[in-house]
Amino acid sequence: MSNFVFVLDANKQPLEPCTPGMARSLLKAGKAAVYRSFPFTIILKKTVEPKEVKQSQIKLDPGSVTTGIALVQDNKLIWAAELTHRAQQIKDGLESRRSLRRGRRARKTRYRKPRFLNRARKSGWLPPSLEHRVLTTMTWVKRLIKLCPISSISMELVKFDCHKMQRPEISGVEYQQGTLYQYEVREYLLEKWYRTCAYCGAKDVPLEVEHIVPKSVGGSSRISNLTLACVPCNRAKSNLDIKEFLADKPSILKRILTTAKTPLKDAAAVNSTRWKLFNALKYTGQRVTTGTGAQTKFNRTQQGLPKRHYLDAAMVSDTPKLEILTLQPLLIKCTGHGQRQVIHVDKFGFPRSNKSGELVIKSAHIKDVKGFQTGDIVKAVVTKGKKKGSYFGRVAIRSTGSFNIKTVTETVQGISHKDCQIIHKKDGYTYGF
Predict the structure, then answer these.
(1) Positive or negative, the Cα torsion across 186, 293, 160, 84?
(2) Cα torsion for 365, 370, 375, 377, to the nearest 10°?
(3) pLDDT 10s digits, 34-60
(4) Buried b (16+ CB within 10 A) or exposed e, 77-93
(5) What does the alpha-carbon distance between residue 334 and residue 394 come to, in Å, rounded to a whole number?
């Protein structure tokens, strides 16, 4: 079961999405043309006046790494996507730039005065890696509003309370000064420990919250002292010290102690951006509703659905029995539009040059070759030679006109631009199913 197809009229006004079979019939009869490939959209060649256009609802499950997106119409899931962010890539890029600039100040080169102490931050400022999550989610919300009649937007607003999980004893005014509320400790532990027993690795069995350092010997209820254990392991450990219990399993002991100290990075990222995203959604002019993580999980388990980001999105807020019409979400991965750095540098931050002394310019700085750009999704049909075959994927251009194509399974080098046909112009994302 595939996603429904978006339909635009001749004036580019959104109509009710249709089934893939209906879209094929319209294209075959010449009544419509392909408007864009991702998400797949057709445009009618004649203006039509539908009697009634059914409205759809956008549902969002914001995540630290992946955000689930779902379109629901009359209690039917008709379109879904999973949007993978590139927050870590942005963070690594900023750290690399910082190290290069810091090194340049210490060398006998052009001095770059530090400016980190004279910059005022706006109210509600977020680090670029967090702001990216909000902006990319809003990009896709705005795209869907242009492609489909939308009645409202729902998002999961509250999931984990890091403040309360780290200090369970906090209460009263002291807790009100914290930034988060409505915590779900058990749900967080299930995600952190991958829904398995920390001691034996058992899956699909009843799991209990286990204190790594038993409370009887002074252990706390901080999230860093909690794990999950199956009933037999929990009873076998009882109030034993974990080092004594796992004395003959040093590798498991090391893994548990390391995982337990893992910071609440993903939970903090979601909580830091949730209100910024909520306020941004209100500016779309659509009615915005919210739901909790516990409510999402309850709706999903009631229908016996597996845990997937797009299914979590479909189950956000008050959701009656939902008919699932698609099990093949569009997989969207953020890639960005390249970078401004023009010159290659070595590991010490010095500009690199070739044998003739010329600076080595980054190929990514060359934006257009023979009408192609790095990031375009192309189809290449090679009729002869070692590379004979058909290839579909993301292209990386070269000034020589000999391109690389990254398919689902491999990267094929040395494909001539003459054999390539653009399927989808670059927009900062790659797509898959």
Answers:
(1) positive
(2) 180
(3) 999 999 999 999 888 777 888 999 999
(4) bbbbbbbbbbbeebeeb
(5) 13
**Distance between start and end Cα atoms, the chain:** 12
β-pairing verdict for 76-84 and 323-324 = parallel
Distance, in Å, from the CA atom of 397 to the CA atom of 420, rounded to the nearest integer, reads 11
CA distance 175 to 178: 5
Largest CA-CA distance found in the chain, in angstroms, rounded: 77
> Using one digit for the tens of pLDDT, what is the confidence trace for 159-189?
555 555 555 555 544 444 333 333 467 777 8
Per-residue pLDDT tens digits for 340-373: 777 777 777 777 776 666 666 665 556 788 889 8
380 vs 385: CA distance, rounded Å: 14
Strand partners, 42: 7, 34
Question: What are the two backbone dihedrals, phi and then psi, of residue 352, each rounded to the nearest 5 degrees?
Answer: -95, 150
How would you list the strands of the sheet with 14-18, edge to edge?
14-18, 5-8, 41-44, 32-36
Q: How far is CA 315 from the centre of its chain?
A: 18
In what side-by-side order are the strands of the sheet with 377-382? 411-416, 402-406, 389-396, 377-382, 420-424
- Provide the 8-state DSSP code for 141: H
pLDDT at 83 over 90: yes
Q: Can you read off the two tokens belonging to residue 117?
A: 């102490």
Can you tell me the distance from the alpha carbon of 319 to that of 57, in angstroms, rounded to the nearest whole number? 11
Output the six-digit token pair for 176. 């009100």
Instruction: Report the percent of the chain where pLDDT is more than 90.
Output: 40
How far is Cα 171 from Cα 191, in angstroms, rounded to an integer? 26
Q: Is 189 helix (H, G, I), strand (E, B) or coil?
A: helix
- Hey, is 345 helix, strand or coil? strand
Question: For residue 108, what is the DSSP state?
Answer: T
Name the pTM for this structure.
Answer: 0.77
Report the SS3 class of residue 340: coil
The residue that leads in pLDDT, 192 or 106, is 192
- By DSSP bridging, strand 56-61 and strand 66-72 are antiparallel
Q: Looking at residue 352, what is its pLDDT?
A: 76
Structural Rg of the chain based on CA atoms: 26
Mean pLDDT of 384-412: 89
Q: With contact defined as beta carbons under 8 Å apart, do 389 and 414 qualify?
A: no
